[in-house]
Amino acid sequence: MLMKILRRLAQGGMYSNKIVSKELGIDEGIIEQMIIQLKQLGYIEKEKLKDCSSGYGCNSSSCSSKNNSCCSNHNIDINIWKVTEKGRKAIAG
Questions:
Q1: Superkingdom of this entry's organism (predicted)?
Q2: Are 47 and 70 in contact (CB under 8 A)?
Q3: pTM above 0.70, yes or no
């Protein structure tokens, strides 16, 4: 199951735990736990955002990139995960 989620993250693009949950037929809470596991294993890491206008769907000048999330004033929590080299090797098998 971890590898399914890792492959989904490797596809890139925007997603939410809810969307991945529906795509893979897994409870949203389990998705969240598995993402934490993938991070602890070193397969993924949070992308460091310099600002909210980096093409992540938020163009408001009042956005903050605090805590790697965007658009806090719009009540949107966006985490951008990047698959590490270790994660890519795990996918390749």
A1: Bacteria
A2: no
A3: no
